[in-house]
Amino acid sequence: MDLSLSTRTEGDRTVVVVGGEIDVYTAPKLREQLIDLVSSGQYHLVVDMEGVEFLDSTGLGVLVGGLKRVRAHEGSLRLVCTQERILKIFRITGLTKVFPIHGSVEEAVAATD
Questions:
Q1: Does domain 3-108 have CATH number 3.30.750.24?
Q2: Which among 24, 78, 89, 111 is placed 20 to 30 Å from 100, CA to CA?
Q3: pTM of the full predicted structure?
């Protein structure tokens, strides 16, 4: 399975819609997307993971790296995820304490820091 990425702007947030699998093979594509967005001045990101079917430790590392990049610019990185098998990975790793995780893009966009 490949990784699909698309971005759109909602208010002052940039929404990154991710689909497919985020693993050792596809994670560099997501990393490049996040680096490009931050480099172009997009510091408030919402990563919509509703279409993600698989996430491994490499993918988690890319998300943490993205969070560090936006925080260096006083930004934020919020996740949208309602899939139990993906949420379980965030709970096991303790990353639910690091990432704000929302049930919908609308909720994540409306959230204030």
A1: yes
A2: 24
A3: 0.96
Segment 76-98 shows an average pLDDT of 97
Domain boundaries of the chain, sorted by first residue: 3-108
pLDDT in tens, 37-80: 999 999 999 999 999 999 999 999 999 999 999 999 999 999 99
